[in-house]
UniProtKB/TrEMBL annotation:
GO molecular function terms listed in the Swiss-Prot or TrEMBL record: adenylate cyclase activity
Any single GO BP term: cAMP biosynthetic process
Species name: Candidatus Desulfobia pelagia
Name this polypeptide is given: Class I adenylate cyclase
Lineage: Bacteria, Pseudomonadati, Thermodesulfobacteriota, Desulfobulbia, Desulfobulbales
UniProt xrefs under PANTHER family: ADENYLATE CYCLASE (PTHR38760:SF1)
A Pfam match: Adenylate_cycl
Length: 650
């Protein structure tokens, strides 16, 4: 037993060391500062809750050892929390049993942009509902502090007893999503976590393949024989095999999360297909393999036993398993392409960090690891310069990733029909709604602004964009080009066209919602081709950016996805081209609306009556109005501006 604990400690320490070597400052905050803030409650420290019933503190945590005085003074120079005259800021009965990261931290997939999710193991019965409310608020305040220091962190307070029974409230936050999501989340926790503070997970010491009853008996025997003290561990139960019948529900949710940066989610998505291909009705999860590599080497092959726990990287090993799956399964002609695509996406995920790391040693180590495990794509040198590629070439790669997601979805949907007789936890109604809402991203609808099938909407922003207007036989054309080409290059088709529309507002909205035009983007305009001025165009795009921040699909709640579609934000762009209004029956207005599913629509009104009818509809049907702060107006500077404003207020 002691040998298994030592192997786990070596593995956990090596994961921390990887994170520290990659980003020392970030690792200090994640592994030292944040645990300290959770462990204490003091007025001049972040996360302070001024209430006597606020629970806090981490069991088996040594604050002075983890967060030494020099480090404390560096982060909180004005705090009196450690003044010898100060009453202790620590709890006599700490409520957090275990604090773990979950996800890519300390793996090959960690990047400079990686956020950090913390799994906070508590017992609700110990702190009560009021205590839970206070602890949630404390965590929220610490999240805010971390954001101010350039790190995105999220806390998930998880009840130990509920987690052990696989009946916990998962991060997706909706019971109708099916038990598959909970099992997959638990699987991800077990195989990817780093123990930051508190108790070790008991699961590492219990062999896989046991039933619930066998697991419980095994634990009781260990305690009875005094091979372990249960007070030193947190018992979150065993990992149950996942029913095949529920994988498709998890597939829909994972695909919804993949829409922001699909290349990051591709490996998780491919993992679901591997599970579905298993030849039994219940499927063992990958956490079992990670457990064997770390604490049960007796279950490994001779070759696998040579791998030290310190060399185990759960993300890299999962990627290798997926690549092997697509290589061996040659029944589909596209599998070779999919195998290569997985390598490319893993490389791109790792490259996110490499681009910002000054020390080339991290890059060398990563490349060596990928080469050793046969995961390095043949075109890795070209992929390393992805940010310098022409826009169209970037989009070709993005289309390949989206095509993979859709093809995998289709295959999983077909296999799902084989389990129609099974009483799924996720209902057919919810499957239908999820599928409909999900494919609203891909579907064209009347008046809808389409999404680009890009690698990542967060990384596609352009430094410079040039707008060009031309009159053609089919009507006016508004086009936007990458960089700052001149009119001659555009007319000779030497410039890199990004997109074109027959309407300027539609073009501007498309650029904003797809992340191509951002606050950092410098706009240019080919002189003498536009009626609209560059200043008006800049003001328009600034208004669009402030009204419609880039949507994170992964942050849209389950409740919103399963609810009826509704408009939540609107912007009316009035008389953009500054046509004369007085004495005219016409008034051109473009109304852009955003719904709760992340879709954008544009509606054009040509008269004041049409505009007021549209505003009345937004108010009565969706409660969208100026008074509710979800309807705004943009009127470019013009001679009749005050006249227009008065018309709207009548």
């Amino acid at each position: 037993m002691n040998e298994k604990i030592k192997r786990y400690q070596l593995y956990n320490r090596s994961r921390k060391i990887r994170a520290i070597r990659f980003q020392p400052e970030t690792a200090t905050i994640l592994f030292r500062v944040i645990p300290y803030l959770l462990h204490c409650n003091y007025p001049d420290l972040p996360g302070f809750i001024d209430h006597p019933k606020c629970p806090y503190g981490i069991q088996r945590f040594s604050p002075d050892k983890t967060f030494d005085p020099d480090l404390f003074s560096r982060y909180f120079p004005n705090s009196t929390a450690r003044n010898h005259k100060t009453t202790t800021p620590y709890s006599s009965s700490p409520c957090i049993h275990s604090l773990k990261t979950i996800g890519s931290i300390g793996t090959i997939a960690q990047s400079a942009k990686s956020d950090c999710d913390y799994w906070v193991s508590i017992r609700r019965q110990e702190i009560g509902e009021e205590g839970l409310t206070h602890l949630l608020e404390k965590c929220r305040l610490i999240e805010q502090w971390a954001i101010e220091h350039g790190i995105e962190v999220y806390f998930f307070l998880m009840d130990i007893d509920q987690t052990r029974k696989n009946d916990f409230e998962s991060a997706v936050g909706d019971e109708s999503a099916g038990s598959a999501l909970k099992l997959l989340l638990k699987d991800e926790l077990f195989r990817s976590h780093i123990l930051v503070a508190g108790k070790m997970l008991l699961w590492w010491l219990i062999p896989s393949g046991l039933t619930e009853e066998e697991y419980q008996k095994y634990v009781e025997d260990l305690i009875y024989k005094k091979h372990l003290n249960p007070e030193n561990f947190v018992d979150l139960g065993y990992i149950a095999d996942i029913p095949k019948s529920e994988i498709f529900g998890a597939c829909l949710w994972q695909m919804n999360k993949a829409l922001d940066s699909p290349f990051k989610s591709l490996i998780k998505f491919a993992y679901l297909e591997i599970l579905m291909q298993h030849n039994t009705k219940s499927v063992p999860l990958f956490s079992n393999k990670i457990q064997a590599l770390v604490t049960f080497p007796e279950y490994l092959s001779k070759e696998e036993k040579n791998l030290s726990p310190a060399a185990v990287d759960p993300y890299l090993l999962l990627a290798r398993k997926i690549v092997d799956f697509y290589r061996k399964d040659i029944s589909k002609t596209e599998n070779r392409s999919e195998e290569n695509l997985i390598r490319e996406c893993l490389f791109l995920k790792a490259m996110e960090g490499m681009k910002t790391v000054k020390d080339d040693q991290h890059m060398k180590v990563t490349l060596q690891l990928m080469k050793r495990w046969n995961l390095l794509p043949a075109n890795y040198k070209s992929l390393a310069t992805l940010h310098t590629w022409q826009f169209k070439k970037q989009q070709e790669t993005g289309k390949r990733v989206h095509a993979f997601l859709l093809a995998t979805y289709t295959r999983l949907r077909e296999q799902q029909s084989l389990f129609a007789e099974v009483d799924n936890t996720i209902t057919q109604r919810d499957l239908s709604i999820l599928g409909k809402k999900l494919f609203s991203f891909y579907e064209n609808k009347p008046g809808k602004i389409p999404y680009l099938h890009s690698l990542s909407r967060y990384d596609i922003g352009q430094q410079e964009l040039t707008f060009y207007f031309s009159k053609q036989r089919g009507g006016d054309i508004y086009a936007v080009y990458q960089g700052r080409p001149g009119g001659e290059d555009i007319r000779n088709e030497k410039a890199i066209l990004i997109h074109q529309e027959k309407d300027l507002v539609q073009l501007a909205v498309w650029l904003v919602i797809n992340g191509i035009l951002q606050k950092k983007t410098q706009l240019h305009m080919v002189e003498h081709s536009f009626v609209t001025t560059l200043d008006d165009l800049q003001k328009l795009t600034d208004k669009l950016l402030s009204t419609f921040p880039l949507i994170s699909f992964s942050r849209i709640s389950a409740e919103e996805i399963l609810s009826n579609e509704k408009t939540i934000q609107a912007l009316a762009i009035i008389n953009l081209h500054k046509d004369q209004v007085k004495g005219s029956k016409e008034l051109r207005t473009d109304i852009i609306t955003q719904n709760n599913c992340g879709e954008y629509f544009i509606q054009t009104c040509t008269t004041l009556v049409q505009l007021k009818n549209a505003m009345r509809m937004l108010l009565t049907k969706y409660y969208v109005s100026r008074w509710n702060n979800n309807l705004d107006f943009f009127i470019p500077p013009q001679p009749e501006q005050h006249y227009l404003q008065n018309m709207l207020e009548k």
